[in-house]
Amino acid sequence: MTAPSPVLDRIRIGSAPDSWGVWFPDDPQQVPWQRFLDEVSQSGYEWIELGPYGYLPTDPARLTEETARRGLKVSAGTVFTSLHRGPSVWDATWEHVGQVAALAQAMDARHLVVIPSFWRDDKTAEIIEPRELTAEQWGHLATGMERLGRQVRDTYGLDIVVHPHADTHIDTEEHVERFLDATDPGLVSLCLDTGHYAYCGGDSVKLIETYGERIGYLHLKQVDPEILADVVKNGVPFGPAVQRGVMCEPPGGVPALEPVLAAAQRLGVDLFAIVEQDMYPCEPERPLPIAQRTRKFLRSCGA
């Protein structure tokens, strides 16, 4: 007889446009936003993220109407930043952040997911910047994120959660820990993406147990270990790796999500856990059945 799943009553499950193959505000290979909203609701989710700014309607009244009639609520918006480049990028960063944060605030979200810029192009594989930051750049990154956390909270009432991501400067266990150790816990928390962290060799359960007070948000994702091994061996960029299916449907990959969710529950705080299965580009009929099966699987885990 199997043991019953733990009750994950501190975990709020949702999904995101990413699970429908959406990476850009407008792209002919992506499903229309109306279809995403219809299908994410049909799959049994009540929380969503905004996705790329401009994919969903940016008028708060329109978006409120469209989400409310489908029983959906917004957990977060997402921004991309390159704060390691120093104060010169602040004004452009804040302009972008302000758009997304204002919409997230209007939708009663409480979080802003912050993704560092890529060091190589996720489409062309062109190396844009060195893979490793200098000590000065680490300093810019830490102080910039603290400034962002303070201003986003003061201006919009949102908490930033920084998202370690493949092909960025915050990726491996070493880089994630260096970033956390360099930033103020009162200003900067982490969005732990289980798939990206595994992609870069990290252990999500260990990170939750070691830096629990810094975990402010979760993205639930798995990687296919066989495809990942080939990706790592051949230095495949993230975009082409996704097209090969490196991010796979749970529970078929790693890390196992049950222990991750159990570790998150033990933190004793309310956390969003947003499903993301990178699938850009994908056939329009593909996301819905995957989303339905994933929601059923997560219910079997107690979420």
TrEMBL record:
It holds the Pfam family AP_endonuc_2. This is 2-keto-myo-inositol dehydratase. It comes from the Bacteria. Residues 37-300 form the Xylose isomerase-like TIM barrel domain. InterPro entries: IolE/XylAMocC-like, Xyl_isomerase-like_sf, Xyl_isomerase-like_TIM-brl. SUPFAM superfamilies: Xylose isomerase-like. PANTHER family: HYDROXYPYRUVATE ISOMERASE, INOSOSE DEHYDRATASE.
